[in-house]
Design brief:
By secondary structure, this protein is α+β, with helices and mostly antiparallel strands. The protein has one domain. It contains three helices and five strands. Strands 1-4-2-3-5 form a five-stranded antiparallel beta sheet. The structure holds zinc ion. The site of zinc ion has 8 residues, from helix 3.
Amino acid sequence: MSGHFHPTLDTIPPLPGAYVLVIRLDTPLPPLAPGRYLYCGSAKGPGGLRARLGRHMRKGKKIRWHVDRLTEAGHVEGAYVFEDGNECDLVARLSDLPIPWPGFGSSDCRRCQSHLLAWPVGTVLDLSH
Ligand SMILES: [Zn+2]
């Protein structure tokens, strides 16, 4: 499963798949402190990854999911996109990272403790292979 980082929506395909959204929080969103966070999700519906990531990157949306609070309060820096991916496999690949908010985005998931991970400064992320 290999992923590419997309800083903007332009290059993201309208295909099904999974993604790691990179969100920067400049102000606290309790219990989250300012910093960078990674949210693992998937998009299987119409418009696929492009439609879903477009939603994440757009401001002023109605709060529907947990992650909407974070993308509204913070700044989406881009996303790693995996056309053949599964969000829980992505969480597993990032299992070295801290879990800042147990249950975030994973209330329907029996496998993961959270679909949100903290990305501490200086931690190298290798999602390219
Ligand atoms: Zn999961």
